[in-house]
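EI: anyone free to look at a 333-residue chain?
SC: sure, send it
EI:
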Amino acid sequence: MIIVPVQLADRSYDVVVGDGAIEELASLMPASARRAAIVTQASIPVSVDTGCEQRVFTIGEGEAAKSLSTIENLCRQFAEWGMNRNDVVVGLGGGLVTDVAGFVAAVYHRGIPVVHVSTTLLGQVDAAIGGKTGVNLPEGKNLVGAFWQPSGVVCDTATLATLPEREFRSGLGEIAKYHFLGGGRLDAEALPERVAACVRIKAAVVAEDEREGGRRAILNYGHTLAHALEIEGNFDLRHGEAVAVGVIYAGEVAHRLGRIDSAALAEHRRVVAEYGLVDRLPANSDLDAVLALFSRDKKALDGVTMVLDGPAGVETVIGPDPEVLRSALAALV
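SC: here you go
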């Protein structure tokens, strides 16, 4: 097993990575836990043993389930079961599940512990790590949420064999961004080591900026366009698929702004192609609608804000030239 600590200002927790890591779940449970509420979906073909009394709470499938009504339903079910602050929520599933499980843990009784068992590649390298939780509104993705760090995270790479091919590729789209956050040639690593490398990068950034007051925004590399495409296309694209297009778009914008050279732009395209991901906008995308959605992004504090590569590495850039944004978008049609 590979153990990656996430070092926070006041405490730390472990992320356990590797084939068979799920067997370590009981050791990550808070000592006070007498009950564990396992939040999952019917489609998740994985079961867990928490070492204490447990009950499964199933939420719906798809982005429609990532809603405030789901949070209310879970809270009411927890109350009916008699859960209290000594108990624990276990998020068992992909990024949608861990986002929901983390948020309900943050708000039920004003906060109870949560442990994540991530069963998707996208979740293992991103969503389950770092304590960002939330649900969607019709007006935008992840607009309601909280920072609520888990007590531990399990990334059992053996569970990835259960994923449909498209879901696995979606996770590769999230890994693609880490190539430009210090990961280098991640595609040369075996899968457990690749996952662990991504976790280390994210853990280091989270340790420096737990609540996204500054540097943590770089973890949204490729996400300005990705979130817009998800909303504009009614979530026809998987998140990682959208991120892959967003990574190339970020490269195109940075190149047009003179922040990176043509070789660096080519590396963006190479990584996405290496992972077999789409590098174009979906057919019939409405460019005006996509551009308008940029201002709804959570990073947008004073006009459009993007995370872009440059001479000093990846950083946030406020107010890039609108004409550059449009021309770079048109290049992906």
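EI: The radius of gyration is 19 Å.
SC: 👍
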